[in-house]
Amino acid sequence: MTMIETVRGPIPIKDIGVTLTHEHIFTKNPELEQSYPHPEWDEDAATKTAIDGLNALHAKGIETIVDLTVPGLGRFIPRIQAVAAAVDLNIVVATGFYTFKDLPTFFQTTGPGRMVERDEPLEEFFIRDITVGVGDTGVKAAMIKVATDEFGITTDVERVMRSAAIAHLETGVTITTHTHVAHYTGRDQQNFFRENGVPLENVVIGHCGDSTDISYLRELLDNGSTLGLDRFGMEQVLNDDLRVDTLVALIELGYAEQLTLSHDAGFFSINTPPSWRTKNAPNWHHANISDRILPKIRKRGIAEETIHQIMVTNPARILAGRREK
Fold first, then answer.
1. Single pTM value for the model
2. Which of 93, 135, 201, 269 could bond to 27 as cystine, CB 3.0-4.6 Å?
3. Is 178 known to sit in a ligand binding site?
4. Does the annotation list 24 as a binding residue?
């Protein structure tokens, strides 16, 4: 039986249940916050908020969330372990690196052809996170996260993406992405991964729900990738009703087997702190799909078996990763 890694250890694929595939719990900047703590961050209060929120989410029927907080976004697995120990749902974590343009100085000096000559550290880190665990926590990553934004595939982003491709080919773990839809960066991602030997059915192109360009989305789907319609509630970018229109259109075009839904939300983010979210994006939270989006698409005539496909079957396939035939 296929097993899927979670913070509390591996579970059978049949137990993954209704899943949100692109979320965050805490987004932090430890180096900055060591000297300039954010006034809205309190460790104990934030942990309690996350525990209460995830237990409430589980009561709504969500059984698994994928936390795509990787280095570059303040990943700290011991904090997530403390949350996971007190909640009823499964938390899955990721490896990868989050940058739109440049890597930190360590990577500028260290690696093949660098001043400190050695094998590519990103490859080592990604593969170790997947096969051994993150640091000394024993928690294994079950997704690989990369990002391209308005700058495109810069020299350093290419380094991250190439390491992700190698880690996927070594381990079979699915790659998931951040894109900038206005610059159609999903195309660049697909071209890169195809050229580097990654079957596109093993790549989730993220943030596609920010787009209303059905022809662009169909292009990505027809190339084989799954799309993440994963920013419901981020209405400062695009209204949820337009996101629902895109979702329903793609289902009606026959793409239900290649769609996932999520929010890209968090309980605390130093980049968009709780006070800002409350004022500017009040629906941007982990319960928005359960409370508002699924009822909307049911009213549009979307069948329960289709919802199960998108919320259960597709995430399980993605988290299972590539399996050798």
1. 0.97
2. 269
3. yes
4. yes
